[in-house]
Every structure is written in C-alpha cells, then in structure tokens.
Amino acid sequence: MTVWGRYLVGFGGLAVLGVSCAVIPAQAGSQTLSWALAGEAGLAVMAYAWQRWWLVMAGAALTVLGTGLASGAVHLPVVATTALLGAIIGWWSRQGWEWPFRPCQALSAVGVLVAVSITLSALVALAARPVATHDIGAVVVLYLSTPPWEWAVVLTALVQGHSLGRFWRQNYAWKSGGWRHVGLGLAAGVGILMLTAVLVSLESKQFRVKANNPFVTSSALGHHPGVAALAVAVGVVLLAPVAEEALFRGILFGSLSHRWRYLPSTAISASIFGLAHLNLSLLLPLALAGLVFNALYRRTGSLIPSSIAHATLNGVSVAAALGMAGVLH
Fold it and tell me: Do 112 and 178 reside in the same domain of the chain?
C-alpha cells in the first residue's frame, strides 16, 4: 500500500472512532457496546495504517476531545485511555520481532489486550450510565466480542514475528499419540474443575469474595436459555480457550521459558493469566489452572491438551453456574 493509501485508510479508521464517540451517549445496552467496539476497531485500523505512535496518539486524543467539545461533555479519562491505546498499537505495529519473542515482547502482547479492555470500559462510560446486566444483547455482545480481540492480538504478534506457520505446525499439528493428548486434556480439565470449585467455595466462605461475572448473574439469561447455551458453546467453550491458550501458553509462557528457567516462567505467566481476567473471585483458581496448563504444554509440546482442558473447565463451570441460577434446566 502506498503512503497516501495508508493515510486514507487511517483517516477512515479515525472517522469511525469519531462517529462512535458521537453516537455512544445516545445509545444504551448492546448498542453502546457495539459502538464502543466499532470505535476500538477504527482506532486499531488507524494505528496500523499510520504506525507512528505520536501521530496516532495525537489523532485519537484530538478526535475524542473534539467530539466531546461538540457534544458538550468532555471525558478526560476517555481521551487519555483512547490516546494511550492508539499509541501502544502504533508502536507495536512497527516492531521487527523474531520468534521466539523476548520476554518484553510477549508481555507487551498481553498488555495490548488489557489496554483494549480498559479502553472499552472508558468508551462505554460515555453513555453516562452502566450497561444493565438484564440486557441480553449487551451480555452476548460483550462475551462474543472478547475472543476476536484475543485472536487479533495473537495473530498480529505472530505475523509481526513471521512465525504464524511455524507456530501452527509446532502447537496444533496432529502428532502420534494425539488421542492420548485429548484424553490428557479432558482429565486435566476435570481435575482443575474440582480444584477451582473447592477454592471458589473457600474464598466465598472465608474471605467473602463474590463472583462479579455479569454473564452468570444476568437476569436476562433466565428468559433466554437458548441464547445462554449458544453463547457458552461459541464464546466460552470454543473461541476463548483456544485464543487464550495461544496467547498465554504459546506466546507468553513459550517465550518466557525459552529465555528463563521453568519455575519463574510458569509462575509469572500463570499469575498474569489469573490477573488478566479481571475477576477477583477467580484470581487464585485461574492462576493455579495456569500452572497446570503450563505443565501440560511443557510435557506435550502441543497446545491441544491445554486448550481441551481449558474448554472443559470453562464449559462445565459456566454451565453449572447457569444451572444453579436457574437459567439452564
């Protein structure tokens, strides 16, 4: 693409961001989330087209600030977080990486994902009211929109390092003993499920830590059990575990363990895996699950077992929570 072509594409992304910021205050529920996601997508397009972090930061900040001035409501946190995300992605798009990544490069991939989540929350705040959990559309949009962003970070990092094909062949090729890997993943998933159930129970009783997951607590799911089952199957069981294993196991733990010893690599990557879910009630259980997933990956050299274990953990635990809430009968 020519220089002028890149700038035209970048201005197109900037226009999407501006329209989103202008429209969000008048929206509610799933429409708020949809426009916020559209704004983030436009910002990402602009950042990759322009690539210069300072230019992307300035463009994003001026666009969000100008939109706020025009509407009579300036939200400085939204301006700051949007500009920061644009700068991060703009800087990220210019890095010449080589596989396996250095620890700082692997950590930056997770940092981009966390920055996306924070910016999404900031953009939603433009609506000046929280997204109600009784809105089934908002819940579905939120949970089905997370895996695509995770996949975008994974694919971008691998394309940056010219290692997409090698990563796929190394971690997803069906090798001899493949069915043993499937069985190992299922067994590990059931074992982790039992362990996390005990830990969550102890947390809720001893430390009074309560679940803050709107997918489980949403009152709208009781009226839409089919939607709940579909969202669990597609988002929680299929898309999210595979993307998260590629990011946290394949990229993060794989890169750290290539440079460091096993114990610090697995401890750091598992802790980040727990923290990245932004759910206090699941911090310790997910960190321990991360340790098990890391061990599976190290032992088999494949992401298939840990992905199956992760999908088993997600599917059974969320389905059980929905069943206890009376959503699934």
Answer: no
Residues 6+ apart with CB under 8 A from 11: 46
pLDDT digits (tens, 9 = 90+) for 19-76: 999 988 887 777 888 889 999 999 999 998 888 889 999 999 999 999 988 877 788 8
Query: Is residue 141 included in any domain, yes or no?
Result: no
Q: At what angle do helices 30-50 and 136-160 cross, to 10 degrees?
A: 20
User: Is there a single domain that holds both residue 104 and residue 250?
Assistant: no
Last residue within a domain, chosen from 131, 156, 176: 131
**Pairwise CA distance, residues 98 & 167, whole Å:** 12
- Tell me the per-residue pLDDT of 203-262, one tens digit each, with 9 for 90 and over: 666 655 555 555 555 555 666 666 666 776 778 888 889 999 999 999 999 999 999 999
| Domain residue limits at 298 | 165-324
114 and 238 belong to one structural domain: no
Q: State the amino acid at position 54 in one-letter form.
A: W
